[in-house]
Amino acid sequence: MGYTYDITTSKRDNTSSNCLFACHTLDTITTLFVSTFLVAYIYQFSENTFEYIFNVGIYYISLYAVFLIAYLIFSYITDLTNRIWIYRLGQLIRLVFVVSIIFFGQELAQMLYLAGGIYGISEACYYASYNVLKQEMVSRKVMNKFSVFITIASKCMDIIVPISLGALISISTYEQASIYVAVIIALILILSFFVKAKRPENSNFSLKNYFKVLKEHPDAREKIFFMYKVSIVHGFTTITSTLLNVCIMLQFGSSFSLGSITSIISAVTIVELVLVTRFTKPAKRDWLYYIVMFIPLFSSILFSVYPSVVTVIMFNLLMMISKMFYTVVYDMYRNSTLKEAGLYSEIAEHQTVVEVLLAFFRVVSFAVMIVVGLLKNLLVFKILLVVFSLSYSATNLGLMLYEKKFLKASPEGIVNLTPREQEQEFQKIIHKLKKNSW
Among 30, 71, 187, 226, which residue has the least CB neighbours within 10 Å? Predict the structure, then answer.
């Protein structure tokens, strides 16, 4: 897969990258609607707790099973054409999904395998193109900042949107709220026409050739394969986020409460993200990793033993603090590792391997959730909650080990620069040392 927009080789199109940024930020609204609030919607027609857990599991296992297969197909299709058209197709399918909710309402919601499948196709189409567009339009030099900014922007939306959507759904219906979400998707489609992209020359998507290339770059292969191992663990964290929403609905039973708690927690995690990115450095923040590895276990056990309004809010807050940290760090290393090795032409293949690993282990985790729903045992559910909460800890552990293994030996910041930039930084360090010595 060719790389065309790197800042070191070509002129950067700020309009395109800014519009892509805006589209993905607005997409946070639709993601909230068809994930967080669909979980609340499923609650409305579930007769008891375990049927609710089973229904949520059916929806998500259908989503990620279809996503896994569809992503492989759309990765290949994206390579054959202009990737922005595939991006728009993903949004168009999502629009069809939301519009179908408007017309079919609870009838569609009760056919959860169908709803999950449609949304899975939409997500596969969207991310097969977005993951490539982001890599092509955002240079390696600014990828770290981009990851932070996109996370902050998304979390800002998470403050405003959940409480607004929750209130809207509470005073009207989920179907009526779908109309507003459909309008937002239409706006994203319009904005996407300001994103200019093209299919690189001599583009050739091949996973087989990708792994052959990695064999020729053992240092890069070691780092990339390490991130694949982290991705496997990271795949299990999706069910934990879903279980958090389920716990809120079981405790409060309303979309407004779900939206309010989500908004408040998002505000806290933005402050956390700003502090972490400003005052900590890679490979020099082990103490922070230990904190975010401990709180998932503590909060999940506390809620399981003493389930209440207070502990469910504390559970969500502490888990989101842990999640916010690993999300931005994981996204940063996932996107920069391949570029550091200079393997720009294998971006699509790399992203495909990551997404397939994530989807496969998400399917596995939600299959466990379905089994719990069938067993109808509250103790088993609590054990599930604690076990999968540890996936947050394990992901943070993996990222800490990645930094200790691959970043600690390098001078601060040097690993994210080009060879020429690295030489310049080394000269600055030498000059500073001589000055201090004098």
Answer: 187
